[in-house]
Amino acid sequence: MDSAYQIVVRHLKDHLGVDPALVTPDTTLGQLDRDSLSILEFGLLLQEATGIRLDDGVLTFRTTIGEIAAVLRRHRAGDVYKRQGSA
User: pLDDT tens digits, residue range 32-47?
Assistant: First the structure.
C-alpha cells in the first residue's frame, strides 16, 4: 500500500486503537465501531500530523479508509504541483 494509506492506518491504530488487520481500503469509519466524537478527533489528529486540512464532511461514518488516503494523495500532489509551478 502507498504511504498515504499507511499514514491513515497507523493513525487509526495509534489514536483509536484499531487493529490494522481489520482495515482494508474499503473499510468505512462506521465499520470500525467508533462514535462521531472519535471520528472527529481522528480527523483533527490526522490534520495535525499531515498538515493537510480535511474539509467538513470528508470524514463520515460512510467514508472509506481508501477515500481518506485519496484525499491525502490529492492534496500532496497539489502541493508538489504548486511548488514546481512557483519555482
Answer: 998 999 999 999 999 9
Domains and their CATH numbers in the chain: 3-86 (1.10.1200.10)
Contact present, 9 and 23 (Cβ < 8 Å): yes
Burial class (CB in 10 A: 0-12, 13-18, 19+), 29: buried
pTM over 0.90: no
User: Rounded distance, CA 20 to CA 14, Å?
Assistant: 10
Handedness of CA 38, 39, 40, 44 (dihedral sign): positive
